[in-house]
Structures are given as C-alpha cells and as structure tokens.
Design a protein that fits this description.
alpha+beta; six-stranded mixed sheet; 35% helix
C-alpha cells in the first residue's frame, strides 16, 4: 500500500527562486516543505550577499500577486532609462549608443533591489503562509522516487514523503547530480566584481552599461545617491583589483564610471564570483524537477538571471496547480514534461543570446567594434524594434504564466 504523504511538494533550496516557488504553489492550495541548509539569520545578514538583482516588470507583477511586493517596494529603485555604450578604457564612447526610455512603454522597465531585501520580503511572506513549512538549517541529502511518490532525506536523517521534489539548490545543485541530470557547461575567462558606490549626483533612475574590452561594466541605480557596480573583468586581473587599497580601487572605478555622476566612492565590502554558463540537459524526471540556477546559469550581461528563475517558478507552479485541480498526479512525468517544454527552450534562447553578446562585445577587435556599434545605432533609430527589446527586457514576450501577468496562481 502506498505511504501517506507528509506534503505535496518538497523544495530543496530556500533562495529567492525556491521561496518564490513555494509561495506560488501554496497560493494554489498545495502544501510545501522548503529545506534550506542556510539558517535564515545568515541568509538575511548584510554580509552574506552584496549583490543586487534587476527585476523585470513581469517579475514585479508576480511579486505583487504573491503578496511580496508591498514589503519590498520601499527598498527598490525603479529603472526609468537604460543607456548602453561601447568604448575602450580611456577612450570616449563610440558615436552610436542605445537608449531605452520608459516613457515609450508607459511604465518603468523594472527595478533594482538588493538581494538581502528580496530575501527578507520573501521570508516575511513565507512566515505568514499556512501552507509552507520552512526547515532550516536542513539540506536535502537524498531522494528516492517510486511509482506513487518521492521520499526526501534531510540532514539529521529526517524523511519526508511528497508527490513532487524540486531542486532549487543553486548552480552546483547536489540533487541535480544525485538524480543524474547532466549539464552542458563552460567557464568564462572573466570574474564579476560587485560593490556599492556612492556618487555625488543623482542617477535619476538610469542604468548604464558600458561595454569594455574585458567585459560589461554596469552601473545599476539603487535608492538614494547609490548605484551597484557590476564589473566584469578578466580573471587574471580581477583578483588584483579586489586587493587594491581603497584610494586605488576608487580611482579604478572613477576611470570606468566617467564624470556624469560626479565624485564616486565605494562603500562597504567588495564581492567577486566566477562567471560560468550551464544548462541542464533535462529539467525533469518522474517526481523531480529543476528550477532556477539548478536548471540554468547565464552570463550576467543582460541582468536576467533571477527573472529567468522566477519564470521557472511561475510556470512550474501553474503546471502543478492545474494538474492538482484536474485530479492528476503532480509528480507524473507527463505533467512535468509540460513544464520542461514550456521553460527549456526559452532558457536556452536567453542563455545562448547572452553568451553571444558577451563574446561579441568583450573584445577590442576593430571590425567587430564597428559592426556592434552600427547595430546599436540601428536598434536605437527604429522605434518598434527598440520597444520590442524593451518589452523583452521586461519579460513581457511570449506565453506568460498567470503569475507573470499579475493573476493569481
């Protein structure tokens, strides 16, 4: 006889995608257990993650629908303009640039929010949900599926029986490996440097992306006269940059920032992380699915990593909820394949596009520089094409899950 279920879904990983997925499933009436090895106090600490995320306006609609946005909104900075330029270090920008103005689509193109603020808002909303049990610190260490369900083993030899298990446990995803889902992967010869920078003049909600030969240099507007610096640098140079004393580090920032925001100064710690690409060969097995960075990892050149994970969460929740309402098995392979078909092609397309953009722009080869500058000028001069790219950046293209349209799960 089949064992009784402890929950409908167990989610391994309590990061931003895992918690959002849990909220979406719970809104649709499913019971969820989230197991995360990181204690909540550590995940919310200011020193845990100094990065920010760009949230598309479709992701904001989802957070509104899940009851998260009201808590997050005070710390989020709307993106009103995006300016893209191409230049070598020490030279003036190319004559062609690309300017996205939010007035063309009648709304901000999204917002910039600190990851710690997103996590805090998610944790607060999860704590108020009756359908979600958060187990922390506790990690999934094993999964055993059978014809009727899946048994998850947590640290401490705790066993939980569920209809479906989801790995949202990051790029290295132990459960993806445990379940035998391989990946296509490679590393970039680049590292990402992240720091918060205070500047003399207001940014007016403008995000800047300067393409330099070593990689993109992004200035992302935060609340107040602050911006988050996302600096892509060659992997052989980045460690030395991180070791620079404060005065020298600020001088390197100023060389890349330019003078348009006045005097600049880095505040707080500096972070770095390697840049890698990976895409899971399959997203699902019977009673098991991948979501977020466990399924895909892309170059940060377009700032779409978290939005891609939120799309996974919205689509998987919709597929599971619809199956449950029809009396179907939410862990059945036929149900999960719908999710895979929905998300894998979109993920592949965006991953391939960001990889191609990075390779095109992260060099100083004259013919390529001329071609890409002319391409930016062409897009900037054609209104419908420009607005299409703005809608694409806002996550408003293609078949959207209900949550991304602002509807209930």
């Amino acid at each position: 006889m089949a064992q009784a279920f402890d929950t409908d879904v167990i989610v391994g990983g309590g990061g931003m995608v895992g918690m959002t997925l849990a909220l979406a499933l719970a809104q649709g009436g499913l019971d969820v257990v989230v197991a995360d090895p990181m204690p909540a106090s550590a995940a919310l600490d200011i020193g845990f993650d100094g990065r920010v995320s760009a949230l598309s306006y479709s992701s904001i609609r989802m957070l509104e629908a899940l009851g998260v946005w009201d808590e997050l909104a005070p710390g989020a900075q709307p993106i009103l303009d995006i300016l893209v330029t191409d230049a070598s270090l020490g030279r003036a920008p190319a004559p062609f640039s690309l300017h996205f103005d939010h007035h063309e689509i009648g709304r901000p193109m999204g917002c910039i929010a600190e990851n710690r603020h997103i996590r805090r808002a998610l944790h607060g909303t999860v704590a108020r949900s009756k359908n979600i049990s958060l187990r922390t610190p506790a990690a999934l260490v094993d999964l055993a599926a059978d014809s009727s369900g899946i048994t998850a083993t947590l640290t401490g030899d705790t066993h939980i029986r569920a209809r479906l298990a989801v790995a949202a446990d990051g790029r290295e995803s132990p459960m993806r490996e445990r379940m035998g889902l391989g990946v296509i992967a490679w590393s970039y010869p680049q590292m990402g440097i992240v720091a918060t920078v205070h500047h003399e003049r207001p940014h007016n909600g403008t995000a800047y992306e300067h393409f330099l030969p070593s990689g993109p240099f992004a200035i992302l507007p935060m609340t107040g006269n602050r911006s988050s610096l996302v600096w892509t640098e060659r992997e052989d140079i980045a460690p030395e940059m991180l070791k620079l004393p404060e005065v020298a580090f600020n001088a390197e920032i100023a060389r890349r920032f330019g003078a348009h925001l006045g005097a600049t100064q880095a505040e707080g710690p500096r972070w770095s992380y390697p840049l890698r690409f990976h895409l899971a060969r399959s997203y699902v097995k019977p009673r098991f699915a991948l979501a977020g960075d466990a399924a895909h990892g892309i170059h940060p050149i377009a700032g779409q990593g978290l939005n891609l994970g939120f799309k996974d969460a919205a689509a998987l929740a919709e597929v599971a909820i619809d199956a449950a309402r029809l009396g179907l098995d939410i862990g059945g392979l036929d149900v999960l394949k719908r999710y895979e078909r929905w998300r894998r092609f979109d993920s592949f397309t965006l991953a391939a596009s960001t990889d191609a953009l990075n390779r095109l722009f992260s060099n100083d080869i004259a013919p390529l520089r001329i071609a890409r500058d002319m391409g930016m000028g062409l897009v900037d001069g054609i209104g419908p094409l420009r607005r299409f790219f703005m809608r694409h950046a806002g996550g408003d293209i293609g078949r959207l899950p209900r949550l991304l349209k602002g509807e209930a799960a």
